[in-house]
Design brief:
The protein has 17 helices and no strands. By secondary structure, it is mainly α. Helix 4 packs parallel to helix 8. The relative contact order is 0.13.
Length: about 450
């Protein structure tokens, strides 16, 4: 689908559904959620396959993936600015300006990808600080040293996906992500266990599979982008400033938020390999249940940005509430599954009785956590769309580092609640975010923001 076709389809939807109803949210969010599902399936298949190798291997890739995500987190958030800026320009009927923003994002992403590689090798010493058994540390470091090479290719895909989502074409990123997922899952089977003349690489085969899948995904979306935009590039300081204006606060928020999560995983690692494995299993399960919520949040971001750019403020409000309603229904339903079927869900990964029991305890708390998380994630997405990025960053800094982090340490270590204490602290953290983001959206001072 070309740029013009994607824009025309989106504008038709905009005219048809100008009131920001639930149907519109679903139309925009389901391709995004399916695209995200492909990445989750990659992680999920990695965990299912590597779980067959043992709890040590499962804990090792979980720890490594957390560090990779931490390093990438600032740049994931930073390049959300492409989607916001492009969406606002499309809403204001400025498609040429939207193309220029996409081109600038692509060129910025190339040196940033090289920077991530450098940061990755500087971060290797983190594994000794994190702790865990020597076996886990050694396997985690070796896996991480390979896995980090996927980041530059993945980042270009992320930037161009944000561009296409910003213009309303959520289908192309979905197709590319599914394509990458299929490659990754197939290569996992071959490279982890071996196939005829192919040797078995164990957990390192998973890293090779991820790198290859990301290279193919990048090539796919890059060819589409060059074809659609002709890549007639003229650098503009004003566009770069706009990208940094939206991107820096979101990037900082992502970095500090993921940093808080990394701290939580570090704490859990201190309580033994089985508790760490149980925590990773529970996180994998929850990642599937929260996946549509992130898709809905992205849809809220795209639509509020476009309606804000078009000056339709009543549709901004209705889009927000439609997204909230869908999210709360979904997280309530999956939360009941966590409470009623915890052992069946956990046994997909491991059969160890201790790990299953610990996973059951964590899943109960996750059923509460994800409801509060859904409210704060969607509200943050809507606020991002209208350009209110600084407040969310400040709120996250306060809640993560002055409430969640000290609370997790006190409850898990001082009160001897172990992983349970960490999750109680995370629930408190998300509750604070719900109150703060809801208050900011309610006071409506964002209505006077410039486009």
């Amino acid at each position: 689908m070309s740029f013009t076709e994607g824009l025309n389809i989106f504008l038709k939807r905009l005219k048809k559904n100008r009131n920001g109803n639930i149907k519109e949210i679903i139309q925009i969010s389901w391709p995004i959620s399916m695209g995200m599902l492909s990445f989750t399936v990659m992680d999920f298949s990695d965990a299912l396959i590597i779980g067959q190798l043992g709890a040590i291997e499962l804990a090792s890739i979980g720890l490594s993936s957390s560090i990779v995500f931490f390093i990438n987190s600032f740049f994931i958030g930073f390049f959300e600015s492409i989607k916001i800026a492009v969406s606002q320009k499309i809403g204001a009927n400025q498609p040429c300006a939207a193309k220029q923003i996409g081109r600038h994002g692509l060129l910025i992403s190339i040196p940033v990808g090289m920077l991530i590689i450098c940061l990755g090798f500087m971060a290797l010493h983190l594994f000794k600080w994190i702790g865990g058994s020597m076996q886990i540390q050694e396997k985690s470091m070796a896996y991480f040293s390979l896995r980090i090479w996927a980041s530059p290719f993945w980042l270009i895909t992320v930037v161009l996906s944000n561009y296409y989502q910003g213009i309303g074409n959520t289908y192309l990123p979905m197709k590319i992500n599914i394509f990458m997922c299929v490659i990754n899952v197939l290569l996992n089977q071959i490279l982890i266990f071996g196939f005829y003349s192919f040797p078995a690489y164990g957990i390192y085969g998973s890293a090779y599979a991820t790198i290859i899948a990301n290279v193919f995904g990048m090539i796919f979306i890059l060819v589409c982008f060059i074809k659609d935009t002709k890549f007639e590039f003229k650098p503009h300081i004003r566009i770069i400033k706009q990208i940094f204006k939206f991107g820096l606060p979101i990037g900082i928020r992502w970095l500090l938020d993921v940093g808080g999560w990394t701290f939580a995983i570090v704490l859990v690692a201190q309580f033994g390999d089985k508790i760490l494995a149980a925590n990773q299993i529970a996180i994998r399960i929850m990642s599937l249940s929260l996946l549509p919520i992130y898709g809905i949040s992205e849809a809220a971001c795209i639509l509020t940005a476009k309606y804000f750019g078009a000056g339709n403020l009543s549709a901004v409000q209705k889009t927000y509430w439609s997204a909230i309603k869908i999210s709360l229904i979904l997280t309530t339903a999956t939360g009941l599954m966590f409470i009623l079927l915890p052992i069946k869900l956990a046994s997909l990964f491991q059969r160890n009785d201790v790990i299953l029991f610990k996973t059951k305890e964590i899943l109960f708390l996750m059923s509460i956590y994800q409801i509060t998380a859904a409210f704060s994630i969607v509200t943050a997405g809507a606020l991002n769309g209208i350009g209110e990025t600084r407040f969310i960053t400040i709120l996250n800094i306060i809640s993560t580092w002055f409430i969640m982090v000290p609370g997790a340490y006190i409850l898990s270590v001082n009160c001897n609640l172990n992983a349970i204490g960490v999750w109680i602290s995370l629930i408190i953290h998300e509750t604070v975010l719900v109150i703060g983001t809801r208050w900011k959206f309610k006071i409506e001072n964002w209505k006077n923001f410039p486009i």
